[in-house]
Amino acid sequence: MSVPVTISIDAMGGDSAPEIVVEGVRMAHERLPHVRYLLFGDEARLAPLLAPYPGMAGVCTVRHTDEAISNDAKPGQVLRTGRRSSMWLAIDAVKKGEAAGIVSAGNTGALMAVSKFVLRTLPGIDRPAIAALFPTIRGETLMLDLGANIDCNANNLVEFAVMGEVYARAVLGLETPAIGLLNVGSEDMKGSDVVKTAAATLRESHLPINFYGFVEGNDICAGTVDVVVTDGFSGNISLKTAEGTVKLYSTFLKEAFKSSLMSKIGFLFARRALNKVKVRTDPRRYNGAMFLGLNGIAVKSHGGTDAFGFANAIGVAVELVAHGYNERIRKEFDRLKPANVPSPQLAAGTR
Amino acid sequence: MSVPVTISIDAMGGDSAPEIVVEGVRMAHERLPHVRYLLFGDEARLAPLLAPYPGMAGVCTVRHTDEAISNDAKPGQVLRTGRRSSMWLAIDAVKKGEAAGIVSAGNTGALMAVSKFVLRTLPGIDRPAIAALFPTIRGETLMLDLGANIDCNANNLVEFAVMGEVYARAVLGLETPAIGLLNVGSEDMKGSDVVKTAAATLRESHLPINFYGFVEGNDICAGTVDVVVTDGFSGNISLKTAEGTVKLYSTFLKEAFKSSLMSKIGFLFARRALNKVKVRTDPRRYNGAMFLGLNGIAVKSHGGTDAFGFANAIGVAVELVAHGYNERIRKEFDRLKPANVPSPQLAAGTR
Hints:
Two copies of one chain form a homodimer.
Chain A: E1 5-10, H1 19-31, E2 35-41, H2 43-50, H3 54-57, E3 60-64, H4 75-81, H5 86-95, E4 101-104, H6 108-119, E5 129-136, E6 139-144, H7 154-170, E7 178-182, H8 193-204, E8 210-215, H9 217-222, E9 227-229, H10 232-257, H11 261-280, E10 289-292, E11 297-300, H12 307-322, H13 325-335, H14 344-347
Parallel strand pairs in A: 1-2, 1-4, 2-3, 4-11, 6-9, 7-8, 7-9
Antiparallel strand pairs in A: 5-6, 5-10, 10-11
Helix pairs in contact in A: 1-12, 4-6, 5-6, 7-8, 7-13
Pathway (chains A, B): Lipid metabolism; phospholipid metabolism
GO biological process, one term (chains A, B): methylation
Subunit structure (chains A, B): Homodimer. Probably interacts with PlsY.
């Protein structure tokens, strides 16, 4: 039996909050009965959503607040004026130890800014990164950063590599996960100075990491490595390119199946098989971007997801808690203290 | 009837050269009977490949050379020692006016370096870019740069926008093509300083361009704009991510259709429809990356493509020639001379 875990929820974040949020919590509750929830938001709207489900009363506590962060609010503005918002209070519950992690489908920039401000980064980590799993031919690959850090230096990339490596061991259960650095070619001479310096550090620093070397965009879905490290600009573009390509392919498929009587009959026979493909590439299954490197678990759900997707994001947070990700990464960075590591980049710590 | 056009071919470039190159020329000849070819390479190997096709004698001229550029040759080394190579001589034929464009499936870095050295950039253009068409839900979108320029400043991106815009008008025949700048969000405040400055220039410079604003990775395949502008690092990663995602999706499909008797029957009925999807997403159909901004037409074929793909790359070069792309871009940059344009970036010209 699992130890009870409490997750705090920004019930007002997301395009269809609080409705899909509450429905997502209900779906997560079915899968993860040991999890408790602190729901931050407008009690007058939350109570009627919870009322039809008596089982929810025992696992959900509503903490009322009038304020919510809008999708177009700027992070700086939220930091100045958002302290009473559902998002801020939900994050604060992690800081206070009332919850083991927080999930929000709200404004990404604000969520990252407030999480960083309230929770702080883990010792030795300069910048947190956004990480998520990608489906691949061989299984799943973790990729980071997906958009938290637009400009990265080599040290940031090295830190992301360590954070991703620990995730792959702690949560995915891999013994010696292979780490790749995303680049425009696999040869040493290719790429920007930043990726070349990061690669040199990963190769020469005696970090206990199985560094594969450079990988290219097509290696992500090929599953060439277990963790793909990149800056937030390229990572975000790559993630969204993949999403757009899946949409293109499935649109082409739909059109093709409608194009003749034969193909319509084919569709009827192949429907179950095609559904499997839909499930395997369903972005909702991969919903839940992790903010790694913070002194607390924070997970961002897609703003436009449905309850199924939101429930998956909760699952991602619970997994990080259950595998003690933050304790593992803390230990890892302790091991990597200046005395033990010859890398000037990593040794420089939180510049 | 079309005016005769001569294309020079690096017959020794690519993974399976010269076999697939000659076969590609033969396929292109069937589709484009008005095109003549100058084939640079080892005559002893080319002659027997051409011999079985008597029709080819009238359209192909072989220019012998012993030397070829290997795939792992470094561009700097090729610039110093590659003057007698098939690649260099093929490019030189364009410089000399013997050919209207050159196609090579060889080493990309070397091809760009030698093309730039021999052909030079067009007046007013700082750096050439690699451009290619993407299939989209709405048709096709041009994207550039795909890997020629790892580090770009705002001025480079503005030049790419102009080059792409002219392509969309001249070759795709669009009246006022929409140009988007690839970024991690569509809001003005998002992204790196480079993209923000480029966007400001495109918005405020009175360039005769229909600037849509920022687009995200998923907008590429959605066909949100006609031209997507980005730096070579993100562009290359995005292109290869899309290729990898198509491969993933088609692998999932294959597995699904093999998973049961029902789905196998479904496959038989839907085979023709599925084949259509395969054709629409076939990377060979999109083979032929254009080096835009050079004082001459140069097209890079994928190194691992087959004859069908190589023939498409020839088609891309012939299209650029037929639509007078370089004359159009030259006129466009003449119009944009310092006196006519208030943009300090573009006015600075070839810094």
